[in-house]
Every structure is written in structure tokens, then in C-alpha cells.
Amino acid sequence: MVWVPPGTLISGAPWTQVPRVADAELPGESFELTGFHVDLYLHPNEAGALPTTNVGRDEAERLCAESGKRLCSELELERACKGPDNWVYPYGNAYQAERCETGKGGDSMTPNGFHGLCTSAFGVADLHGSVWSWTSSEYGRGTEGLVTLKGGNGTHGELVGRCSHVASRKPQEKANHIGFRCCLGPRNAAEVKLVVERGAPLRYRPDDAAHRLLFEQTIHALEAVGEGTTADRNGTSEGPAPKFFAVERVWLWHPLGNEELWLAGGCAPDPKAKRCGVFIGRLDGQALTLLRFVSSGRWQPTLSESAEARGLHIYGGDDIGAFRKLVEWDWGRVAIGDRERTKNHERWSKE
Could you tell me the pTM of the whole model? Predict the structure, then answer.
């Protein structure tokens, strides 16, 4: 087993960190944890052995107890992963897919110790890149009857491979991609309690003069604007002249719980035609941070919800005709899709 000494765990990820999951992670809350021992590998804690899977949470607890141990808590595994310096990943603050081979789908089961470089600063192996681990912690995010899972793998490796990442399942669920790891010593009582606030995915605010003015003041201070950025000094054919941009419409967007973004649509004059689009920003008190600009061409932009709250459609037009773009909240970033158009009133498709 590996000894994890007493120390401060900074749980979750601060609001400025990308990527992060606002409705599942604390915004960098500190916990003082006592020391404990943790298995070097996933159960059966043997190098080269395949992790024990297809067990529910209660059975995992029983198997740990049979060896005189207990199931680790959520925060204990986060501490074991982040190390003494509270790294983002087991190996540091910069994502390196090859270290734990994160970014893969499927069950991602590998023999214990297979990823020799996937070891935390405390010396704990395979905290990511293999199967998920049951914990003894209830999923304290405003839900009932769910248990927290740690570790694991997934197609979005930069997101899933972080020490703060979690998943949730019902305790009786059994799967070949869910295993467990045991701890020893008095259990740390600290648990995650996260209040999750949700709002309407997209809300138009026609009478919001205050936010229109705040956006205009912030936009006019920019030097240049290009598609996908709010401070492109070179500018692009997609960007308006910032100092002439007039905000006509404001929306409030909740792409997921505990995440609130503001959008401002408008246009700026051009010698040949208007240049229009949507600025996306986040408010911190009275300060507005602009995250992205999405061009709507020559047309005043309109918005609609997508299939998921994390996405919305921005509609515009150019010399050819109408188009739309899918904009998605990519766990802290704004992703802009390709232009889509319709032909003969058929469904939207990429150009």
C-alpha cells in the first residue's frame, strides 16, 4: 500500500480552469485530510492482474473488508491523485494523453501497472486510464441514490483524465468497466456537498438595457475581432469593427448546472455590408469577460435551443442566403461548428 500523508486537498477545479464540469466539481474548496494508506493498484492490488470488475458497491466494500481494509472515499482518491501540490492530473498540470492513455472509449480495462508513467506524486498507480473505481461516497450533487465513481477513461481524455473528474452510478450496478480500490486507516469524514443551480437553457432578454451597455463598453475596448476570438489583432473577414458594434439583443444561456453565460447580438456598419454576430461572455460580479465571437454574416443574429442545453444554434445570412452554426459549451470553452444551410427546404447540412 501507499501512504498518503495528512495535508490540504483543493477539491474540484476553479472557475477559470479549463476543462471543468461546473455541476459536478467544487470550485477549488480546501479540505484538511488526515493520513491514510491506499492500495497501489486497483483490486486485487497485484501488478499484472486484471482489475476486479462486475461488482456492485456493497460487494466492493465487502471484498475490501475481507482483507482488513475499507473502500476509499471520493476525496481520499482525489487527494491520492492530486498529490501534495494539488496537480490537475496525476502526473502534473498539463494534459499528456500517453501517460495514462486516456481518451479511449469502451471499458478500457488494462492490467494493473500497464501504464508505468500513470503514477501520482504519492506513488499511486492507475488512478486513470483503466476501469472506474467505486467509492464509499454518496454523490452529493443534489441527487439521491447515486454513488460517486473516480478514475476511469473516456473519449474526452483531457476532461476525464483530471483528478477532480467524477461519474455517478446506482450502487447495485455491475459493469466490466467498474472496479474499486481499497484504503486502510480511519476514514476521512469530509464529503462533497455541491448545490447545483439550474436555469432555463436559453432566455431572451428584450428589455435588458444594462447588459447591452456593458457588452458595448467591453466590445468597444477591443482592437479587432475575428470569428472564434475576441482579441484577434489581425482581424478576419468574419469580424466587425469593435468600436462601431451596436448590441441589439441579449440572451442568458445556462449550458449546464452552475454555469451561466451571457450573449449579445448585433452588427457594425461596413463600407460594403453590415458585419454581424454574437459575443459570448461570463460575468464575475460587475466584470464581463468575453469568451468568443460567432459571426452571423450580414444578418442580425437570431438564436434557438439545440437538442441539449450545452448547445444552441446561431442563425445568420450572407450573399448566398441563410445559414446557421451550432455553438457548444465544451466544458469551459465555446466550440463553434461549421456553417449549415438548407436546400429546397430540406434539413440543415454542412456546406
Answer: 0.91
